[in-house]
Design goal:
The chain has 254 residues and is an alpha/beta fold. The chain has 7 helices and 10 strands. Helix 7 links the parallel strand 9 and strand 10. Helix 1 packs across helix 2. The chain binds 2-amino-2-deoxy-6-O-phosphono-alpha-D-glucopyranose. 2-amino-2-deoxy-6-O-phosphono-alpha-D-glucopyranose binds next to loops. The site of 2-amino-2-deoxy-6-O-phosphono-alpha-D-glucopyranose has 13 residues, from loops.
Amino acid sequence: MTRADRWQLTIASDAAAMSELAADAVAEVIRATPEAVITVPTGSTPLHLFDILVARAHRQEIDFGRVHLFSLDDYLGLSIDDPNSLSGWLSRAFLRRIAFAPDRVHLIPANADDPQSAALEYDRALARQGGFDIAVVGMGENGHVAFNEPGSDASSRTRVVDLTPETVAQASAYWGNRYPIPARAMTVGIANLLEARRIVLIVSGAAKAGALQRALEGPTEPSTPASLLRLAGPRFEVIADRDAASLLSVVDAR
Ligand code: GLP
């Protein structure tokens, strides 16, 4: 394998630097492709990235006007007004702040009457739009990506999934354990992500160091879904802060 066939790892000094680099990647894609199809994760990791993207949009350094966004995942059966709804969260944390055109926002249909067929239709809509130009994703402490839990394979597509107890516990903690979390969700699949022209995994904090080590230095296998992203070769970039990268034994082993 030549170096050009390999995925990329950048270790940023801290979460702020990680977020700047991820924002640069998003900006670069949108500059090259004004109608780019993008996705961004939910959770704590992307919050500063959103602040940077919003600030750059307000300074007219990035034009989201023609960009399409497909969301990654949401809990099954929740209305957008539910405090746990990731669609609602994404709208508040990012989309509304840049007045993202509603007809260009494609929220995963986790609240559909018939979730299975809605998931298939979501996949078709994503394919019609040409797939992701850039997929920015985060990672759970068990190595999940979006809601692709351990056991998800590289051919998985948008579907309904069962969440692991640890993911439910992690998610419940987000709002201080105030609201019960549904144990099922809808998520785009690993195959949808692997088809992206650019995949950027952002990881910060020491709590993710073990998962990142497994994802980058362990075997590529469904027990650590993030490891499967390495199958995208040079289209896969990891931006980790120093704490998250602290267990990587050979930084250049990729
Ligand atoms: C949830 C989301 C993922 C996210 C993960 C990590 O499970 N479905 O998309 O990447 O949490 O969240 P955090 O960044 O808060 O650690």
